[in-house]
Amino acid sequence: MATSKLIYQFRVELLEIEPSIWRRIQVPADYSFWDLHVAIQDSMGWLDYHLHEFRVKKPQGRKVADIGIPDTETDRDVLAGWEVPISAYFMEPGVAAAYDYDFGDGWRHKVLLEGVLLREPSVKYPMCVAGGRACPPEDCGGVPGYERLLKVLSKPRTEEYKETVAWLKGHAKNYFPYQPDRFIPGEVEFWNPAKRWKIAFGKNAQRQF
Predict the structure, then answer these.
(1) In sequence order, which residues have a C-beta less than 8 Å from that of residue 171 and are 6 or more positions away?
(2) Which of 45, 82, 136, 165 could form a disulfide with 34 if both were Cys (CB 3.0 to 4.6 A apart)?
(3) Per-residue pLDDT band at 207 (split at 50, 70, 90)
């Protein structure tokens, strides 16, 4: 069956944090890895300020492919995500990939293909159908910084609390009041991946969609 008639359902989980921060998203099966990246960013609540990379096993082999933004400063073989269809690697339910975002803070995700569905004509994809807990604030310092943030916010009337609140309010995305347990799937807004690519690489850049 043509991929244009199919939908992939993924479970995306941010690792090393309990209780779990996760999302269940449905995306067109003819998406590229760049398109999937944008859907993950939007559903999780990241701001797409930093580099990202998928690591997934090649079909019928043990070698791992690195897919993201090619690194022109090193000899690492990173495939351009906008040139690689997700259907070339996510060939059946149960296939999982690692998705890293912000190599400084080191946010690690597991991306699991849960199922392949038939596209519903009346539904707009991608969509977020479930999830749990709010995304950590961007640039909070990875898992250790996130845990420290929650600890500080639990103790008002301290100078560190005031400084943290000022940082949250002054962020590019105003995170205050930060509610770590709050997530509503219906509030997720998805960007057009082609538009995001143009913003990232320039209006005159060319790519295959």
Answers:
(1) 137, 138, 139
(2) 82
(3) low
Predicted local distance difference test score (pLDDT) of residue 209? 44
Q: Looking at the structure, do residues 140 and 54 belong to the same domain, yes or no?
A: no
Report yes or no on 144 lying in a domain. Answer: yes
Give the chain as a 3 state SS string: CCHHHEEEEEEEEECCCCCCEEEEEEEECCCEHHHHHHHHHHHHCCCCCCCEEEEEECCCCCCEEEEECCCCCCCCCEEEHHHCEHHHCCCCCCCEEEEEECCCCCEEEEEEEEEEEECCCCCCCCEEEEEECCCCCCCCCHHHHHHHHHHHHCCCCCHHHHHHHHHHHHCCCCCCCCCCCCCCHHHCCCCCHHHHHHHHHCCCCCCCC
Give the CATH number, domain containing residue 121.
Answer: 3.10.290.30
- 153 in the same domain as 73: no
CA 192 to chain centre: 14
Q: Which domain holds residue 75?
A: 3-133+183-201
Q: What is the pLDDT of residues 49-101, one digit of tens each?
A: 999 999 999 887 779 999 999 987 777 899 999 999 999 999 999 999 999 99
- Same domain assignment for residues 111 and 82: yes
- pLDDT the model gives residue 206: 58
Would 209 be classed as within a structural domain? no
